[in-house]
Amino acid sequence: MAAPSETPWLLHGGTAVSLDRTPDRLVGREPESYEVHGRLSDPDGPRLVLVRGERGAGRTAFVHAVGERLRTEGTAVLALDCVPGDGARPFLLALRMVMALGKYGPVAAHRRRSAKPAPEALRATEALRAAEERDGTAMAVLLRAALAQPVTVPVLVVMDDIQHADAGSLAVLGEVDLARVPHTVRLLASEVGRGERTGQPTEQPTDVRAEQSAGSQAARLATVQGVHTVVLSPLGPDETTAVVARRLRATPDTSLARRVRELTRGVPGAVDALLTAWTRQGTIRVADGHAFVGVMTPTPVLPDGDRFVTALDALGEPGRTVAGALSILWPLGGRAAELIATSTGLSAEAVGDGLRDLIDAEIVEAVPESDDAAVPEPGDAALRGRGRGRGRGWRLRLPLTAHAVRERLGPLERGRLSATAVEALWADRDAAGTTDAGSPRITVAALPNEADAVAYLADRVAEAGSLVDLDRAVAELTAAAQRLHPDSEGRGVLRWCRAAGHLVERPADRVAALHRYARAAYNAGDHRTARTIAESILRNLADVLGPRELQATAALFTAATGNDLDWRALSRLATAQWWDELRLPALVTVTGRALALGQLERWHELLDLLSRTERIWATDAHARVMPAHFRAVAELALGRPERFRESLALPEASYLDAGHAYALATAMFDELLSGRDLRAAQALLTAQGLTSEVLPPAGLFLWRHLQGRWDEALEVARWMLANNRTSTPAADSHLIPARTAAILLARGRTTSARRLVDSARGRAEGPLEYSLDAAEAEVLRTLGDATGAEKVLRRGLDAADANGHVAGTDELWASLVEVHTEEGRAGQAADCLARLRRISDRTGSGRTRLRYLLASARVLRQDGRPGAAREHLREAVELARSRSQPVETAVTLVAAADAGVGPPALLHEAYELFGGSGAALSRFRTRAAMREAGITVPGRKQATTENERLLATLIAEGLTNRQIATVLRLSEDAVANRLTRLFARTGLRSRTEVVTAVLTDYRVHRLAAEA
């Protein structure tokens, strides 16, 4: 089941994420910034530094940031930005340079002594006359004089975007003898471009030709003696992720960072454009300081005014037409040019001209070569239609731009181009004798990844629609959806199933396609769509389906209703009346009702229903799979796990298709992890040939949690909670928030853990909340509220007892034993321990047995029976080690060491295990135990850093000094002393500053290390 839709502890500003555009740090450009600053500050350095970079590389921000840094050091900075249209005004840039530099010559003293015009003023007048008369010789003399004059302060002239400047000015500048320019005058220029231009498009407007001429002059500046060129390359993966973190003021999760890198290829301007579009759409969620975007979130379309779009529009034809076609056909390699000509009606020569224009404008690039495929040049036979052109071909440089270009095409144009691609690929498959739909063995030259190749063809089939063979199209889409299930990368399974549903003509086939669409929507987390489609099939198309298909549809409809958190509707689905109205077969009614009862955790009613109707569902091997699973889970929840354990062999797998077998296996996997049986879960995966990479998010979180990979587990949990995707097929509907809260608590985030538990609580008609009660009680105990913890634990146990629910309640009984023991209530502790032992004996669970052994050791020690307590702890250590769960093992080792069972080295082992999981609070307490036992704590500096970081976290959680003392088991004076040292070492001055530092991910431990 899923958590409630609102999780306020997680959301930072809800979906209204604002971008941080403050330019005080050039994230990812630090090396280049240091280099340019150093060269401009060096008296023997170059007089002109030329910064180059492709469109969107951040040249403008870079040169102005360098200028601002030098300004703070006493340099006068003259900003002479060039804009489109400057190229049509001869000697404009040179004129501006002469006039600007004149302001910093030896003017002041001259003006005090004479009423005559200053030489710099006369020079500016002469420069204006030279510009008007287009006298390059005169302007060259004046510019050399302006650059060579002594200046009263160091001067930096910043010329941004000189590709827009007039060619005359750049030619004059290129002729200046930079060796004669004094070291107090420096020039910093920026120009778009990754390399020398390969040619110029023809028949361009006058202003465009002027800028192209200026661009050639700007490129030649790099060859002038005394000029140093710095190229701003695209950012690497780490730098791109850092930029995203800075812009969003949150750490991007792995999926968001990957999508940004793939769409922008590390070009900062593209990163900003992408994040701006997603932010305006409200699709970025920030949870617990981490940013997320859903797998199904579409790529935004860049607006018409975006720099990447306007650069293409400025080219005119045939470049725009070629770019539009290439955005769809580029994966077909070198023959894309031939297909562009065929599909657009352009001649081969026109396509070649368009490609050259696009390459010169750095909008298109050659696809990187492979060992067995050459890239045809724009003028060779392949491009001009005299060959097949099987090379790697060309593509738009930025996938984000390619998407914008593709989406700007009309639907008919996209369909026609996609149909061209489909027909070409199908022809390849037919010629090769490979007719299987969804086969990866198709010639998509530029997509060596098989999954990407399958997805590309499916996307093109979906776009082509009725323009290609319908039966083959449906088969292709269906096969692709099956091949790439589960669609963890968001390649488009839901989209393909929807397209197939629209293309199917025969009623029977259409129902099957709709069912696949509903299941794809369910797997994608779109439970509302899945629910709507499934219900429409049950109500309107039931006569077309057989009992098996109807049973699957009913199960899908019920599961989607539960995951949509509509408990009232789910309660109606648990009644016979609702299903009787649809006049469905008895098998379908029983299956739907049983699943509804299970999701509502009404286990006795579920077993009663299945017992009364066994003759209906148990006669057919295929039909009994789901009811039998429901029965096994219900008995497991009631403390009778025998049937569930027998079912782990999945004897019914041979009767199921791959999708149903996967769903059943992952449901069992989650149930095993609910009971913390990591080894059995691993055995199940191995037996079914599955790996953790194909697990749904819930299973992946539970898996990583028990493995002690908490950073990875939290990444999944944050995404699930931010996107309201916490549902799990396990009997415990609140596993995700409860165990996430446990991780937060172990890291000292007490308030965050409590808020998460509160936000996850549902309404009265929803599932039991015993796991949330266990998590909340642990928070209260950590804060020293034993009475509150006991109350919460009793509430959870009473609710479970009312439903006869047993599974998972061992955690509550064990915590209650500990509460009573700590409070000195031996009789009550013994009563609770007896209940815990009965559950352990009844279920045979390793986790329950371990909890019993640890709890009983506490009781036995309090009763004055240390020998018996040590025996229980020795068994507990052996059992914990066999279960291979790091945190569970560490807790057991600490308990054993505290009782004197085994060598003191157990504490050191526990300390390392806690450290591997990031359990900062547990590790702090273990350090204290090690010191008390006389064991040297390794890494004194690291320990100090961890202590201060934990203390900062507790402050950020809003805890008072008294509460911090309780959590850390210290005196208030000790806490006050630690705070004083924290402030002194980090330079922070107040608790408010500490909170700000933690919330903005400003690492206190890094400051401490640098102190």
TrEMBL record:
GO cellular component, one term: cytoplasm
ATP-binding in keyword set: yes
Chain intervals for the UniProt region annotation (Disordered): 191-215
UniProt superkingdom: Bacteria
GO molecular function list: adenylate cyclase activity; ATP binding; DNA binding
PANTHER family: TESTICULAR SOLUBLE ADENYLYL CYCLASE, TRANSCRIPTIONAL ACTIVATOR DOMAIN
Protein name: LuxR family transcriptional regulator
Gene source species: Streptomyces aurantiacus
